[in-house]
Design a protein that fits this description.
The protein is of the alpha+beta class. It is built from five helices and 15 strands. Strand 14 and strand 15 form a beta hairpin. The radius of gyration is 16 Å and the shape is globular. Bound molecules: zinc ion (ZN). Zinc ion binds next to loops. The site of zinc ion has 7 residues, from loops.
């Protein structure tokens, strides 16, 4: 089934699925848990649209390719084009929605690539590597510096973060991204993962939430 951006009420969002622009190591405690230095400038990477699947109804993981880690992240849906130094107001105006999402990572493969100084695409851009829940409208969060993100697996809270503790807050992050490559309506920003990443297993039951705003149950097939 092909992916389509949706709002939580089930209505389709009529933007084509674009690229997924991601930031790595955007929470200090998460950088430390993987023994990575905290970067001095934003560490960006892109997942192509072919990675994206919907959270609802369960999703599959490529267990035959080694350890598959979850990274719960706040996803931002871009609804207007942004390029070269947009203002804060332009960025805010271009945000169409927020959702919880999973940036899935082949962690063994990523470690191998990192050790060789190679790009991460094989570990980050496989089919199904971006799992996205339905969006709430952008105006749900007048203050984008206070958005929670929480992942519970098999009844245990594994990740519980907030945009307040991001190293690169959402608006300056998107300004920086738009200066690196144009963003278009239908692109999604994954804003980094808080501490607590770990492996997923087939049969895991997940609850992924923007606490107090949206909550979704899913499972690993
Ligand atoms: Zn991530």
């Amino acid at each position: 089934m092909s992916y389509q951006h949706k709002y939580v009420d089930g209505t389709n969002i009529h933007f084509p699925l674009g690229k997924v622009v991601c930031i790595g190591r955007n929470y200090a405690e998460h950088a430390k848990e993987l023994d990575n230095p905290v970067p001095t400038e934003p560490l960006l990477f892109i997942k192509p649209g072919s990675c994206v699947v919907a959270l609802e109804g369960g999703f599959a993981i490529p267990t035959e390719r080694g350890s598959v880690h979850y990274e719960a992240e706040i996803a931002v849906l871009i609804g207007k084009p942004l390029s070269t130094k947009p203002s804060r107001e332009e960025v805010l105006d271009a945000i169409s929605g927020f959702a919880p999402a999973l940036d899935l990572t082949l962690r063994d493969k990523q470690a191998e690539l990192k050790a060789k100084g190679l790009p991460w695409e094989i570990a980050k851009s496989f089919d199904g590597a971006a799992v996205i829940a339905p969006f709430v409208v952008g105006s749900t969060f007048p203050d984008v510096t206070d958005i929670g993100i929480r992942l519970t697996i098999n009844g245990e809270v594994r990740q519980d973060g907030n945009s307040a503790i991001m190293l690169n807050p959402i608006i300056p992050m998107i300004q920086y991204m738009a200066g690196c490559f144009s963003l278009q309506a239908g692109d999604v920003i994954l804003t980094g993962t808080p501490v607590g990443v770990g492996p997923l297993n087939v049969g895991d039951e997940l609850v992924l939430e923007l606490p107090g705003v949206s909550r979704f149950e899913s499972h690993v097939r």
